Amino acid sequence: MTTTPLSADVLVIGWGLAGLVAASEALEAGRRVILVDQEPRTNLGGQAWWSFGGLFLIDSPEQRRMGIRDSLALATQDWFGTAGFDRPEDHWPRRWAEAYLEFAAGEKRAWLRERGVSFFPVVGWAERGGYGALGPGNSVPRFHITWGTGPGVVAPFVGAVEQGEREGRITILPRHRVTELLTTDGAVTGARGDILESSPADRGVESSRETIGEFDITAGATIVSSGGIGGNHDLVRAAWPERLGTPPAQMLTGVPAYVDGSMHSVAATAGARLINGDRMWHYVEGIKNWDPVWPSHGIRILPGPSSLWLDATGKRLPVPLFPGFDTLGTLAHLRATGHDHSWFVTSRQIVEKEFALSGSEQNPDLTGKDVGLLLKSRLAKGPTGPVQAFLDEGEDFIVETDLESLLEQMQRHPGGEALDIDHVRREVVARDLEMDNEFTKDAQIGMLRSMRGYRGDKLIRTAAPHRLQDPAAGPLIAVKLHVLTRKSLGGITTDLDGRALGSDGEPIPGLYAAGEASGFGGGGVHGYRALEGTFLGGCLFSGRQAGRAAAR
After folding, report:
1. pLDDT digit string, tens, across residues 151-187
2. Quick one: average pLDDT of 5-21?
3. Secondary structure letter of residue 380 according to DSSP
4. What's the CA gap between 508 and 418, in Å, rounded?
5. Are 82 and 328 in contact (CB under 8 A)?
6. Within a 10 A sphere around the Cβ of 98, how many other Cβ atoms?
7. CATH architecture group of domain 6-226+261-279+489-551
8. Over 4-35, what HEC string results?
9. CATH code for residues 287-454+463-484
10. Quick check: pTM over 0.90?
């Protein structure tokens, strides 16, 4: 079956956050739009719907109320120190970084507020660095949690496209998988692909790939906003860079299976230049979801700074690879150990205060905008409900009342045979001895005490320093941690209008790209590493740029 050919002013491929923003901008400019995606409509909003909703802002009212002094100059120093741009093809990523920083320090917050997006008042501090002032990491807290988490970020743009649909100005086509970009005299003029059979799959659940027909769509402008490769472990391993060691034999998946990278090759066939494919962002604090939605579903622990982090053999990770400080530095170190997992050794008191879980579904208080639940879950004694569920049900958690019992259970756990139990015991005892004074030679303890100088950390994010074996701190807890796939940092090269560029550096007429498909702008706006809160923001900014330019 082949459907009647369709046409529009603007065709958007992929209905994640970047695609929704691009479509809404084209609608606002009065253009006729077609929005296609290979998934059932239950997945409108894509990966962003599942996110924690963190957004990177610079010198915001929320920061100022928390006593944080931020500036465009400081944020620029942090961004470029983190990105490490060092390639000729980083020309456009650099330009995008400069433009995005201006956006984050300027109209980004007001633009979102106009659309009903608001923020949790406590600003989080992600990617803390721990190196010199010119090294990677955030010098100050910049992680603004959206009230409503990922669904709260997505909602205004879903609302805009659904209003356009009711008015007959946009056609939304689920189960349409693009396999080819149409070209005429060197210009992209639309797309062709397969119609997949209808699927009742819930959001995030893997859906059928049975083909029932074909489609053709012609358009004046085509925007590729199809995401990255994090759901396809084969592509992740093929792109894995030598600087991060060997790819893990076993990984968890932090994104739904439809994040398969299929549009990268389609765009390349049409002439788009793909760059920085070896730059990627994966977490090392992954835990197996006890209630999975998609295959190998993992959840990331968003850790505070207090847990003792050990490799698979029981050796403590070196300075400054503490929880929450340097994601890719920790990944590179752990890949050199020859094992696919590591361990947190911690206390219930630390878990209560410092363990948050990534994902909208793991934060029902923030996602549901439920103040009562938030007060009970975040400020009351005890872990949040989702964290407690992992303590009760998660196979990666071990809870014991004393150190010897904990060590025995860790060694019995799958992978625990690699542990040097005597060394783990020495690490725990040595750390606890450092707690007797307000001063210390232990850099991690010194850093966590410093972090409590920030009101936000002291209020809800960093436990009071204590001995892990202190009975008052509750039972001891060990958590087995896995590598969790997440983001592609490279992609389709674009100029500041989101126009896809060919191998000669010139724009391909009619073709645009946005979101993770374009490395969040330019083919890699983050360089080698990210500052966090910058992925959703990159989708917002690149989607806006591409949508406005395509509408012109």
Report:
1. 999 999 999 999 999 999 999 999 999 999 999 999 9
2. 97
3. S
4. 53
5. no
6. 15
7. 3-Layer(bba) Sandwich (3.50)
8. CCEEEEEEEECCEHHHHHHHHHHHHCCCCEEE
9. 3.90.700.10
10. yes
